Amino acid sequence: VFASGTDGFGFTLSSIARTWVSTGKLGDLSADALCDALWGDHFLDTKSMSISSKPKREGQPPMAVAFVFEPLWNVFSTFTAEQPDDTACCKITSRLGVPDRAWKSRRSSKDRLEAVVRHWLPLAPCMLDAVCDHLPSVASGQRRRLPSLIPQLLEAPEELRESLTTADPNGPVVVYVAKLIDIEYLAGSCQYGERTKPFDESFVGFGRVYSGTLRPGTPLLLRSGAREVEVVPRSVFLLRGHGLESVDHVPPGRLCGISGIANDVVKHGVLTTCAALPRFLPPPLLSSSIVQYVLRPKRPDELETLLHGLQLLYQTDPQVELAVLPTGEHVMGVAGEVHGERCVEDLKTTFARVEFVISPPIVQYRETIVAKSSKLRPVEVSTPCGNFSISVAAMPFPNDAMELLLDTENKGDPAVYEKLRRDVLPACPESKRKYWRKVCDQKPMATGPSRYGFCGCSLHVCFEVDDDEEEVADMERSLSQFSDAITSGFQLATNGGPLCEEPLIGVCFFVTDILVEDERIPDAGAMAFLMRQAIGTTSAACRQAFQQHSARVVEPLYECVVHSAGATQGKIYNALNRRRATIDDEVMAEGGETFYISGSLPVGESFGLQDELRIATSGAATTQLRLSKWKLLDLDPYFKPSTKEEIEEYGTDAVVQNVATTLVEAVRQRKGIQKRNVVEFAEKQKFSMRGA
């Protein structure tokens, strides 16, 4: 499609061919033949009205130039001249078949030009023709996309599968609801703070019909999240720009709005009349909710109203996540600073409409280790009564495996760890060691932290006494008996590391020994008590095994793209360098002064970047941020000068404040784990008693 959004015209080769043939000036030449000739070196014989591959006269332009570019050039040059000639304008428009009433009533030459080209080459029919000619039909498009949307499609009943792949309007109803939209603001019927309808009437589900015919008043099964309820849509709409058009039915392949289901939809869902329909995959998100805010109402009696507003925001925004901290604080997770500002505004004006206090943005981090040696260094921890003891060792995953675990697509899917165990680890040089061979050969006891929804650590069995079969059998029996307690302790340890109680990632724990003295457990009550003690013991063992290595902080990174123009590169580089950004590329636009700079920016350093660049460049720079990856910050948070060179540089009593130390102290102070000492070095004050 050749188009101009500024002037509002567009054409394809087929549309321009039909336009010329409709004038009747090309004799018996068909539109298809003319369309084929408009691409390449083809020439028109004006006497016989036939197409030739050779010019009939010297200097004859190709048909593409004669029928497309020369008329466009003549129209623009005639109407944009300093003193447009009305006679020449009328001559051109009559040749193009544009009536005088379409453009003569316009005053300025620019308006006349737009009226002529829009009448001659209308953009809307051109785009519609292109859609009809090139996009697949509803049935063929669904046959290609459904296997990726419904992984268990082959397990569905034959009738349902046939209806989905053929988009049968008479088959079972299947509608995928992608999100909820606010129809009051969409239609422009109210202003902020003046909402007149309840939530169920103000929001409608935005979905696509895959099978059957959707009609209002039909009982349907709604699957949203982990619940299934029966709903009855009150009405269905077709979305027409800023308005809604109520209809009595919607066939397959159409996008529509559905009212009466907003109270039961959580982010997304599926409406169907067939209970055997396999589940759809959730929509992919461009970014994860890596930034968090703590909210509390100014008036304590409005807490329930604020929580209800947060729940409504959670239902309508696929990116928002809610949680409650162990301290009882309510946390809202968002994609970034701008998304957080939008959510806060929606809470104030739409969902909660109460005054509340919001904390500074909180960024999530991860903790990991770097190995000091390639040997396992087990740590043995026993219960206070001594009836249960366990030895645990920790090792960081190899670099290739760490790249897979640090990927933002790591959502805790078991397939992620299976790929790590079967494909990534065997290809690493470290896989020849005994403990990594065991990881590749056997499934893990547990992976975690399960609370945070990603696969970061694993727990394996690697007994060091393989020769003594009787002892190994005793340890395996004890391991099977206490497996639930050991798994719970592992999850507890991976939920928060020793640095700043952030989740662990990239650490593999090995159970090297386990000892249970059964003769000292008199009854079932004592066994239950020992089970509870084993959870804390395993957690302490994993934590101490983690501390046998040098700890590191893993921070999230944004993919940062800054667009600007003029001589602003230096100011942009200064702002990015102060925020520890890494510049990857700088590209200048051809034939202009605009350029863009791309790189990586730590999420914790991104707050206020847009305002700083806007002030520094006088509004010329705009920033786009998207969560890209997690990166290991290879700095020791507990670094102390030890070598002669380090002592000469930093001194013996100096506390080196590197970036990792600053991050850890800030997180610990926010969580109340460690209070910062105001006075670090103090001396006794000397008082003089003279003259007293």
For the largest beta-sheet, the strand count, sense and barrel status come to:
8 strands, antiparallel
- Kindly report how far apart the N and C termini lie: 97 Å
**What proportion of the residues is helical, as a percent range?**
25-40%
Shape: elongated
How many β-strand runs?
Answer: 27
- Tally of individual helices: 22
Class by SSE composition: alpha+beta
Give Rg in angstroms.
Answer: 34 Å
Strand order of the largest sheet: 8-7-12-5-6-11-9-10
Strand content: 15-25%
Q: Round the mean pLDDT to the nearest integer and report it.
A: 84
Summarize this structure as a short list of keywords or feature phrases.
single chain; 692 residues; alpha+beta; 8-stranded antiparallel beta sheet; 5-stranded antiparallel beta sheet
Textual characterization of the structure:
The structure is a single chain. With 692 residues, the protein is α+β, with helices and mostly antiparallel strands. The strands form six sheets. An eight-stranded antiparallel beta sheet has the order 8-7-12-5-6-11-9-10. Strands 13, 14, 15, 16 and 17 form a five-stranded antiparallel beta sheet that branches. A hairpin with an 8-residue loop joins strand 21 (446-448) and strand 22 (457-461). Helix 3 (63-79) runs antiparallel to helix 5 and helix 11 (303-316) packs across helix 12. The longest helix is centred in the C-terminal third of the chain and has 23 residues, at 524-546. The radius of gyration is 34 Å and the shape is elongated. The protein starts with a strand and ends in a 21-residue tail after the last helix. 30% of the residues are buried. Residues 187-194 have low confidence and may be disordered.
